[in-house]
Design a protein that fits this description.
The protein is α+β, with helices and mostly antiparallel strands. It contains 18 helices and 12 strands. The protein has a single domain (about 30-460), classed as Cytochrome P450 (Cytochrome p450), CATH 1.10.630.10. It has helices at about 1-30, 45-50, 55-65, 85-95, 105-110, 120-135, 135-140, 145-155, 165-180, 190-205, 215-240, 245-250, 260-290, 290-310, 320-325, 325-340, 370-375, 415-430; strands at about 70-75, 75-80, 100, 160-165, 350, 355, 360, 365-370, 430-435, 445, 450, 455-460. Strands 1-2-8-5-3 form a 5-stranded mixed β-sheet. A 3-stranded antiparallel β-sheet has the order 4-12-9. Its main location: membrane.
């Protein structure tokens, strides 16, 4: 009995010492943390988030705790941000306090030196080089090549039942390669594509690097991609020609990037460019099929461009100026970006304890601006679930529309994405009709939200 009493006294003393120490160390921080719950130790609220539609999770939290709340997901304490002004602070005005963050396995696979993983001087240098290759001035020169890729894709779909997302991935991949490597390197395309497809299969697999695993195969394909790119670099150096594409921009940098840095960033840009653009195009085809009046308005706008070109005796091929005469189609893209919100949120990490709108965000905590919730808030967009491109006839309230992010890491490829979508829409709506195989209400995540089964459609030439 005495022994039990002694043990109890020792245990209680240890517990008291631990609690005093804990509260001295974290008490002041804890009391100022944003409202919310952290769930179970380690697992946190991961199960609650992934066992239901993520939007239901976010919506119920926002209702209960407001637009800044804490939770614990995938082993990390997080603060989620659903207010436009607070998201702007994280991404723009106080961006230096919140660095980008990705799981280590994803960094290894894409390449540690890729633009997304950095901030500061190295990031600024890369960003300048990437932006230079995707300015309107630069991409203006490749409109007719993009058009050839679009026409070729559409012809290959004629009279077939296609999985829209798969076909759009090929289209977006070919456009990305054109903007990265120009026309000359077309003969490397198939090899690059083959390796990239193996790499992407491993990207979402378990990060176990043992022979036979998808991850292992992906890491091998990653090396093969770097080898092909090194070959292209060496040929270009021998030829001593200048190129107006992303690879040319990287090679012309006076401070010089290493071949590894160039490879990581080329692979990174393909990764950023392909599935994002392909998902949006898939959603556009779905929304247009479901909204015949909008489809009719887009078709008339595109036919008008053909007519005007015929009347003025202009070349038949599309040019940059033509793509600036497509306001209805542009609003369809904007509304699709909003409704589909394929990047529901992004991740940042506090680099120090940050005082934030009256709360404390401790160093190392993840901070997630919730793009989708901002895009689906009825205060920002009335009847948010309704597909209504005409709402963009009036500019949205400041910081409420961020499909391409905001601030130092915002999307440098947004003009190219919009251009390739407009070019495809021009030929699709003027020459083809398509129908969905069945009413499509389901959504799959791969990892972006997509219509169920990648939207199977039947596509045929207009009579
Ligand atoms: C509809 C298609 C696209 C969407 C919705 C999209 C969206 C985004 C978003 C939201 C970000 C910012 C992520 C963050 O702040 O964490 C981003 C970054 C980026 N995007 Fe895009 N993107 C698209 C197409 C493209 C294309 C076509 C390219 C290249 C040709 C591209 C290249 C990049 C790169 C390199 C970054 C990283 C920028 C940096 O870290 O400084 N994206 N994109």
């Amino acid at each position: 009995m005495e022994l039990i009493c002694l043990l109890l006294i020792v245990a209680t003393s240890f517990l008291s010492l631990f609690l005093i120490n804990y509260f001295l160390k974290f008490g002041h921080v804890k009391s100022l943390l944003p409202p919310g719950t952290m769930g179970w130790p380690y697992i946190g609220e991961t199960f609650q988030l992934y066992s239901q539609n993520p939007n239901t999770f976010f919506a119920s939290k926002i209702k209960k705790y407001g637009s800044i709340f804490k939770t614990h997901i995938l082993g990390c304490p997080c603060v989620m941000i659903a207010s436009p002004e607070a998201a702007k602070q994280v991404l723009v005005s106080r961006a230096h306090l919140f660095k980008p963050t990705f799981p280590a396995s994803k960094e290894r696979m894409l390449g540690k030196q890729a633009i997304f993983f950095h901030q500061g001087d190295y990031h600024a240098k890369l960003r300048k080089l990437v932006l230079r290759a995707f300015t309107p001035e630069a991409i203006k020169t490749i409109v007719s090549e993009i058009e050839s890729i679009a026409l070729h894709s559409l012809q290959s779909w004629e009279g077939r039942l296609i999985t829209t997302f798969q076909e759009m991935k090929t289209y977006a991949f070919n456009v990305a390669l054109l903007s990265i490597l120009g026309k000359d390197e077309a003969h490397y395309r198939e090899d690059l594509k083959r390796c990239y497809y193996i790499l992407e299969k491993g990207y979402n697999s378990m990060p176990i690097n043992l022979p036979g695993t998808l991850f292992h195969k992906a890491m091998k394909a990653r090396k093969e991609l770097a080898r092909i790119l090194a070959q292209i670099l060496s040929v270009r150096r021998e030829m001593k020609q200048t190129h107006n594409d992303l690879l040319g921009s990287f090679m012309e940098d006076s401070e010089g990037l290493t071949d590894d840095q160039i490879a990581d960033n080329i692979i990174g840009v393909i990764f950023a460019a392909r599935d994002t653009t392909a998902s949006i195009m898939t959603w556009i085809l779905k929304y247009l099929a479901e909204n015949p009046t909008v489809l009719q308005a887009v078709t008339e706008e595109q036919e008008e461009i053909i007519k005007a070109k015929q009347e003025s005796g202009d070349e038949k091929t599309l040019n940059w100026a033509d793509t600036k005469k497509m306001p209805i189609s542009t609003r369809v893209i904007q509304e699709t970006l909003r409704v589909a919100s394929i990047l529901s949120f992004t991740f940042r990490e506090a680099v120090e304890d940050v005082e934030f709108n009256g709360y404390m965000i401790p160093k190392g905590w993840k901070v997630l601006p919730l793009f989708r919730n901002i895009h689906h808030n009825p205060e920002n967009f009335p009847e948010p679930e309704k597909f209504d491109p005409s709402r963009f006839e009036v500019a949205p309230k400041p910081n409420t529309f961020m499909p391409f992010g905001n601030g130092v890491h915002s999307c440098p490829g947004n003009e190219l994405a919009k251009l390739e979508i407009l070019v495809l829409l021009h030929h699709l709506t003027t020459k083809y009709r398509w129908s969905m195989m069945a009413p499509q209400n389901g959504i799959q995540y791969g990892p972006f939200p997509l219509p169920q089964n990648g939207l199977p459609i039947k596509i045929s030439l207009k009579k």
